[in-house]
Amino acid sequence: MRTMILALLLSIASTHSLAMQAPAAEEAVVELDGVCIAPDAYASWLLLTHGERLARVYGAEQVAVERAARAVGVELSQEELSAQVQRDFDERIQHAFFGNLDEWRAEFARTGRTEAGARRQREIEARPHLLARKMASIGRVVPEHKIVREWERLHGKLGRRYELSMSFYLAEVRSSAQSDTEARKQAQEEAWSKSKARALAARARIAAGEDFGKVARETSEDPDTRDGRGVPSSFRDEGWPKGFHDELAKLAVGELSQPLQGKGGWWLVKVRAVQATELEAARPAIVAMLAEKGPEPDEVGAILEPLHVNTKVEVLPQMWQAPSKGEQGGGDLPVMLVDGEPVGRAEYARFLLYWQGETALTRFVEDWAVERKAAAAGVSVTEAEVRARVDEHIETMIDEGFKRQREGWLAFLRRANRTEESFRASLAERWRIDLLAEKLMLRERVVDERALRERYIAAYGDEGERFEVAWIVRRIKGSLPAGEPSREAVEAELARASEAARIELAALLARATAGESFADLAREASEDLATREAGGRRPGRFRADSVPQALADAVLGQPVGGTTAALSYGSAWVAFHVLERRKVSFEEAKAELAEELRTERPFLTDIGSYRNTLAREVEVRIKPGMAR
User: Fold this and answer.
1) What average pLDDT does the segment 238-251 reach?
2) Which residue in 225, 339, 482, 537 has a CA-CA distance of 20 to 30 Å to 8?
3) Given this model, what pLDDT does residue 20 score?
4) What's the pLDDT at 53?
5) In whole angstroms, how large is the CA radius of gyration of the chain?
6) In whole angstroms, how far apart are CA 607 and each of 16, 532, 601?
7) pLDDT score, position 335
8) CATH code of the domain containing 556
């Protein structure tokens, strides 16, 4: 199955990689250095690179919502959709660009977008939400909690708007960061008690007849109310603790409160005036306003969430097969099943083109630029090379991300509604391009004297010594407990499998110590296929810079004939046996080092920079076909 998918991918790649069969300019989606890219070619690339990953988004947010809307007779016209998108754009222009239409359009130029493409993308995103909003409107009764919310928003907490005099007394807690829990608790209690005592003292002065403003000016520990002689610059309903507004509601006009706790201290409050609006009096106007406004995001979410959760999306192998009639003519070829119903290739390709066409263009330009340069240089990659790199990528992911548990990785894929085959397919196209870039970088790499001398010191050290080694490898092989195991259970199984591999290797090393040949033991039991038949001998010299420091130190500390203890290395336990140590001059090592430098893989970050550099040299013009 893996081989078949990779073969399909490479055959498709040969069609879209020379997406240079120029269509008519008005039909093209983009023009790259004067070369017009046809919609079919770009849609094919989008299916390869984005199709599987976004299939669930399409199935759950587009297909399922459209199906649910049809079931209840809900329709959405293009005029309604366009009007909503325009409202969204108008709001962004007003808030982000202060109403300047030219600056809004200039942003498209800066980001490599077009207004038409942005409209198409926004239509794709807005349509399911507008349909869900219409569905939520059917038989809608305005929720009571929203009526209460609007009542308090318009008329104050509990329907009361206040004019207040206020004075504040801070509960400042001073305790060492090193204090224990009991000491901190005691310090807090003392701080609150002292601040309340200050509030009560101030209250006694006011109750005895002193002016509230005078007392606040002399005692308030809040700059706003102190400077305002007890009158806050504003009183906001938000941020007060539970019960604060209940106590306010109990006060008559002119009445002075007891100290009220809130916002870090105690408050004295005197009601100067209050405007009370009963809920029932305000209800009709609020209900009419909310009914006209329509369902809110949480109500729309209540429609969408079950569809997102319950919709089953299955990607079919045809996602990676080249259509016989091009993307737009391949609608009879299903690429996924949504709750068992097929979705045609052309339908899904159009969705990807309109939703991701402009935002994914940067990566497409990179791929196109790499392929163009590779074709000019006669550089290509084989199916076997792509498959090997995909295998390596997945093994590294399992080792580093899933603690060497393949079953854990497969369970992760199942939770994401993916399969191993689909995951491999999604990797294959990216690695095909990265391998082309890698080969181009190696061809262009310059190996000079300085680089050679730096490599010599790194490889042979100041003493210029070469090590030849053999090794025995015993891989860690575990299996996940049945069902949905806990993290502790997975870690326990990993520890068990690791200890089993270590014991196996220790037994082999005991036999070597007893006199058996290390090479014979490697041929018998090493699980590194590349070196087993050679008695574990690793090709070339031992490179200390290619293994963790602990392993390098263990090997470099051995004499000829010496063997290290069992060492943990990635997903295995290994032991090294030193076959030869000898002095090597720079001139002797020069040719080998030069070959290593010429063939050593670039880092992925360097490949990314190389791709980006090639893409920046391409003149890109988005054409009308992108949003048609």
Assistant:
1) 91
2) 339
3) 40
4) 87
5) 36
6) 22, 33, 10
7) 92
8) 3.10.50.40
From residue 4, alpha-carbon distances to 7, 320, 383, 463 in Å are 5, 10, 10, 51
- pTM equals 0.69
**Number of H-type helices and E-type strands within the chain:** 26, 12
230 and 104 in one domain? Answer: no
Asked whether residue 110 falls in the same domain as residue 19, the answer is yes
Cα(277)–Cα(154) distance, integer angstroms: 10
- Which has the closest alpha carbon to 570: 392, 388, 396? 396
pLDDT at 627 over 90: no
- Per-residue pLDDT, 326: 55
Angle between helices 345-356 and 39-46 (to 10 degrees): 90
pLDDT band at 323 (very low <50, low <70, confident <90, very high): low
109, 115 in Cβ contact below 8 A?
Answer: no
Instruction: Please count the CA atoms within 13 angstroms of the CA of 485 that sit on its side-chain side.
Output: 17
Nearest to 89, CA basis, from 117, 111, 119: 119
Backbone angles phi, psi at 474, to 5 degrees: -125, 115
Q: pLDDT by residue (tens digit) across 168-218?
A: 999 988 766 556 788 888 889 999 999 999 999 999 999 999 999 999 999
**Calpha distance 5→17 (Å, rounded):** 17
Q: Is the model's pLDDT at 306 over the cut of 60?
A: yes
Residue 245 has pLDDT above 70, yes or no: yes
Q: How far apart are CA 123 and CA 129, in angstroms?
A: 10
Tell me the longest C-alpha to C-alpha distance in the chain: 105
Rounded to 5 degrees, what are φ and ψ at 105? Answer: -70, -30
Q: Does 248 share its domain with 300? A: no
Instruction: Please indicate, yes or no, if residue 425 is contained in any of the structural domains.
Output: no
- Phi, psi values for residue 22, rounded to 5°: -65, 125
Amino acid identity, position 380: S
Which residue type, as a one-letter code, is found at position 123?
Answer: E
Could you give the number of structural domains in the chain? 3
The answer to whether 331 and 347 are in contact (CB under 8 A) is: yes
E-state strands within 113-237? 160-170
In angstroms, the Cα distances linking 605 to 310, 397, 438, 598, 611 are 39, 17, 11, 18, 10
Res 107: pLDDT: 94
Same domain, 132 and 151: no
Domain that holds residue 496: 465-583
Q: Are 271 and 259 in contact (CB under 8 A)?
A: no
* 127 and 153 inside one domain: no
* Residue 613 Rama label (left phi>0; alpha psi -120 to 50; beta): alpha
Q: Is residue 493 part of a domain?
A: yes
- Token representation of residue 508: 């082999």
Q: Are 467 and 587 in contact (CB under 8 A)?
A: no
The residue among 511 and 25 whose pLDDT is bigger is: 511
Do 193 and 111 belong together in one domain? no
Q: Lowest mean pLDDT of 101-105, 353-357, 542-546, 590-594, name the range.
A: 542-546
pLDDT at position 9: 37
Asked, for residue 411, whether it belongs to a domain, the answer is no
Q: What are phi and psi of 419, to 5 degrees?
A: -120, 165
Token pair in block for residue 584 = 């090597």
| Phi, psi torsion values for 212, nearest 5 degrees | -55, -45
**Cβ contact 198:190 at 8 Å:** no
Return the C-alpha torsion angle 192, 195, 201, 206, nearest 10: -110
Burial class for 399, CB neighbours closer than 10 Å (0-12, 13-18, 19+): middle
Angle at 196 between CA 192 and CA 201, to 5 degrees: 155
Mean pLDDT, residues 40-50: 89
